[in-house]
Amino acid sequence: MLPGRALRCSRGTHQPRIQAAASAWAAGVVPQGFVPLSRAASYHQSTRMASVAAASFPSAAAAAAATAASPGGAPRDPAALWRQIASVYDKAQVSGACSKTDTQVEMCRDAGLGVEFVLRVATALKAKPNGPPQPAQDKAAAAPSAPAPAPWRNPFSPPEPELTVGPLGPTGTHTAVLNKFNVVAHHVLVITNQFRSQAEPLHGADLAAALEVLQAMPEGGVAFYNCGPESGRSQPHKHLQVVPLPFMDGQPPRAPVDGLVEAAAAAGPGGGAAPLQPLQLRQLPYQCFATQLPDSPSPEQLGAAFDKLLQLAFPGYSYSPPPAMAALPPGASPTDAATAAAVAAGSVSYNVLMTRQWLLLAPRRTERCGPLALNSLAFAGTILVRSEEELGFVREKGPGSILAEIGVPW
Fold first, then answer.
1. How far apart are CA 395 and CA 7, in angstroms?
2. Which terminus, N or C, of the chain has the lesser number of Cβ atoms within 10 Å?
3. Percent of the chain, pLDDT > 70?
4. Distance between CA atoms of residues 195 and 332, nearest Å
5. Distance CA 193, CA 201 (A)
6. How far is residue 397 from each of residues 5, 11, 104, 114, measured CA to CA in Å?
7. Which string of b and e fits 207-238 if b means at least 16 CB within 10 Å?
């Protein structure tokens, strides 16, 4: 625990809290604070989504129809997209296509950060399949006398029809898919239709597609991206994830770290930072960079904002696809575990968070702290623990100290 850091933890049982807001969407009432999303630009070197899932499963076809962009590439109706997310989720839960683990929630206030962390306790969590092993584990497969590399199937190419919500972006460059193993209802994956590496930086169209889902969620949500070997990523195919707010029933629909971004913005020159102005959250014991978003940001604005944050975290960094990625045909997915691991290898690791109001990037130096393996959501103010041992570790060490250990010091 960091010196002088006080913790207060209390446990409760999580109760889902989206029905009232979802009913408002269904009735055509726009939730307070909703801002329509501007049209997205076409994605760099991408093609329209193949209709494999729609042809093979009726509900996927209905999803595509329900979320299709209107003529001229205008944004689809957020309420219709949310209804489709909820409908596909309900059907997948009944059929067993996706599995939700019930959790208890424990609040743990870190006085040093001034953040009320949400700890999700899921001791019965079903283990989800891991992605391909790290390249270092595949050295034997590369030896001349070794057997052929183990086959690998990309779970996103194509995604399971029963989990497919529909296309995102006016030209269908991304697809909304439900998370198969979830601890939060309506956990959505935003995947690129063509294979791209999870080590690749985000583009404006990636962020615009995720923002489209955020705008559809009745009370907003948190989108996140795990990039690099120490980020907590599990799949090599480029994807963002989006979970609804609030993280706990009875809380306001805000990420627990909202106040940190607001405080950094308020401390800007002239009494407040302008939208899209890069911010350094120097009040934290680890590097963290953010920017406030304007109403209806364009994909170009989103992409430029992300690039500025990335350069603050890694000055002079430029992504170069690994040789394994360059060797693949454009848009083709790896078919063996060794190649899948190699294409996802990256020289930097970081986590990205986005709400309707802000974008945040935190560089990583390690994935683990004690028994915990952590991804982007830890920096949003929520931590998943799978055992009493892990829960005790978080209580003892404190969330702020954990983030300081997995993050990069100033």
1. 8
2. C
3. 77
4. 6
5. 16
6. 10, 17, 20, 16
7. bbbbbbbbbbbbbbbbbbbbbbbbbbbebbbb
pTM assigned to the model: 0.82
Q: Read off the amino acid at residue 152.
A: W
Place of tokens 């209802």: 185
Give the count of beta carbons closer than 10 Å to the beta carbon of residue 27. 8
Long-range contacts of 296-301 (CB under 8 A, 24+ apart): 296/35, 296/36, 296/37, 296/38, 297/38, 297/211, 298/38, 298/41, 298/204, 298/208, 299/40, 299/41, 299/203, 299/204, 299/205, 299/207, 299/208, 300/41, 300/204, 301/204, 301/276
Q: What ranges make up the beta strands (E) of 4-137?
A: 7-13, 99-100, 104-110, 115-121
Residue with tokens 């697809």: 175
CA dihedral 349, 111, 387, 226 (to 10 degrees): -20
Phi then psi dihedrals of residue 237, to 5 deg: -80, 125
Name all domains of the chain by residue range, CATH numbers in brackets: 7-406 (3.30.428.70)
CA–CA distances in Å: residue 67 to residues 85, 104, 171: 10, 33, 12
Look at the chain and count its residues: 410
How far is residue 344's CA from residue 235's CA, in Å, rounded to a whole number?
8
Would you give the distance in Å from CA 225 to the centre of its chain?
4
pLDDT confidence of 67, banded at 50, 70, 90? very low
* pLDDT band per the 50, 70, 90 thresholds, residue 11: low
pLDDT digits (tens, 9 = 90+) for 215-256: 999 999 999 999 999 999 999 999 999 999 999 999 999 999
Position 360: which residue type?
A: L
Pairing type for strands 239-244 and 358-363 reads unpaired
What burial class does residue 133 get, using C-beta atoms within 10 Å of its C-beta: 0-12 exposed, 13-18 middle, 19+ buried?
middle
